[in-house]
Amino acid sequence: xxxxxxxxxxxxxxxxxxxxxxxxxxxxxxxxxxxxxxxxxxxxxxxxxxxxxxxxxxxxxxxxxxxxxxxxxxxxxxxxxxxxxxxxxxxxxxxxxxxxxxxxxxxxxxxxxxxxxxxxxxxxxxxxxxxxxxxxxxxxxxxxxxxxxxxxxxxxxxxxxxxxxxxxxxxxxxxxxxxxxxxxxxxxxxxxxxxxxxxxxxxxxxxxxxxxxxxxxxxxx
Length: 221
What we know:
86% of the residues lie in helices and 0% in strands. The protein is built from nine helices and no strands. The longest helix has 60 residues, at 148-207. The termini are far apart. 27% of the residues are buried. Residues 211-221 have low confidence and may be disordered.
């Protein structure tokens, strides 16, 4: 109870800027938790990518489809949808590109807000510093009657600065963590998509050699 009351007292002493800082801290925590839960459910994992691509390269489509159907996440979902579609290679290539971008959009959702909090929190802390120092200077006339009136404004400035920096540090760490995972997921999506397109193109070349030769000539030109 002593820690809670001391924290509440620090919050009150920080002044009015502490309220938007409190909102920033709650928003950072909420976004981090929501994104962590989504990444946990939406990331198919590096292991799935390796096993799936190995099966496709061995031309073992049954194993690859069974693996994709039994794995959760956006990469596995993309693989399942691509394997179930029919059509020419050009349309399928465009389809894979669009679906990959949509999958990445799901992972990037709300991360921009977290990045905004990284910058906004120290700025709000600086605002609290300025208002605290202004209040401290305004109390110089009262320094003889109440010497603590001057130091109260400085204390308000320090509290908001520390609070804003703490929020920014936590938000930076979470943002860096999610961006690192986002890069890995992007590589997995690209690897799965390219492996599928290459395998489908080879199968089309085997079934329709004339079309395959024409496509190779177009790519060469």
